[in-house]
């Protein structure tokens, strides 16, 4: 994230990436739900969901207890501002899904797409309305 300037996320640009505003316990974040289908010769074999969250101001300590397995959700990804090492949670040894928590300034390839989308949605705070990146 560029330093020296306050940055916010442009909600219109985030909507272009299919993120919608979402609220958890009074904290505003952005959520995107992707549905994947697995097909074979006999047609659709399975479907599952991937959910991505951009978390702007919820502390990690408050977020962690809220992350639980969800029906039909294989993976949940949470991108938080700052720097840190990725945290991975499995639910029932992965049978009920996975949750990955990473940071904007991290290096994990699993989050490259989300980081790129956030960079594209960043705008200096004096130019647009939106949500701050902290």
Number of strands: 9
Number of helices: 3
The structure class reads: mainly beta
The strand line-up of the biggest sheet is 2-3-4-5-7-6
Gyration radius, rounded = 16 Å
Instruction: Give the helices and strands as they follow along the chain.
Output: EHEEEHEEEHEE
Question: What's the main sheet like?
Answer: 6 strands, mixed
The helix content, as a percent range, equals: 10-25%
Strand percentage, roughly? Answer: 35-45%
- Name the overall outline: globular
Distance N to C terminus:
11 Å
- Which residues form runs of ≥5 with pLDDT under 50? 1-5
Mean pLDDT: 86
Describe this structure in words.
With 134 residues, this protein is mainly beta. The chain has a domain at 22-55 and 67-80 and 96-101 and 112-125. Helix content is 15%, strand content 43%. It contains 3 helices and 9 strands. The protein has helices at residues 11-16, 60-63, 112-121; strands spanning 7-9, 20-24, 27-40, 43-55, 73-80, 87-90, 98-103, 122-124, 131-132. A 6-stranded mixed β-sheet has the order 2-3-4-5-7-6. It has a 3-stranded antiparallel β-sheet with strand order 8-1-9. Mean pLDDT is 86; it is low at 1-5.
Task: Please tag this protein with its features.
single chain; 134 residues; mainly beta; six-stranded mixed sheet; 3 helices; 15% helix; 43% strand; globular; disordered N terminus
Layout of secondary structure:
Elements: E1 7-9, H1 11-16, E2 20-24, E3 27-40, E4 43-55, H2 60-63, E5 73-80, E6 87-90, E7 98-103, H3 112-121, E8 122-124, E9 131-132
Parallel strand pairs: 4-5, 5-7
Antiparallel strand pairs: 1-8, 1-9, 2-3, 3-4, 6-7
């Amino acid at each position: 994230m560029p330093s020296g300037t306050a940055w916010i996320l442009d909600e219109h640009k985030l909507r272009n990436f299919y993120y919608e505003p979402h609220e958890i316990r009074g904290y505003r974040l952005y959520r995107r739900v992707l549905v994947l289908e697995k097909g074979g010769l006999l047609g659709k074999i399975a479907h599952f969901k991937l959910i991505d969250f951009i978390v702007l101001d919820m502390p990690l300590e408050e977020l962690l207890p809220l992350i639980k397995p969800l029906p039909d959700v294989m993976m949940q990804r949470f991108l938080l501002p700052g720097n840190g090492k990725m945290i991975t949670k499995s639910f029932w040894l992965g049978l009920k899904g996975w949750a990955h928590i990473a940071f904007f300034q991290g290096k994990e390839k699993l989050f490259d797409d989300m980081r790129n989308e956030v960079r594209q949605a960043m705008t200096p705070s004096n130019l647009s309305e939106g949500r701050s990146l902290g």
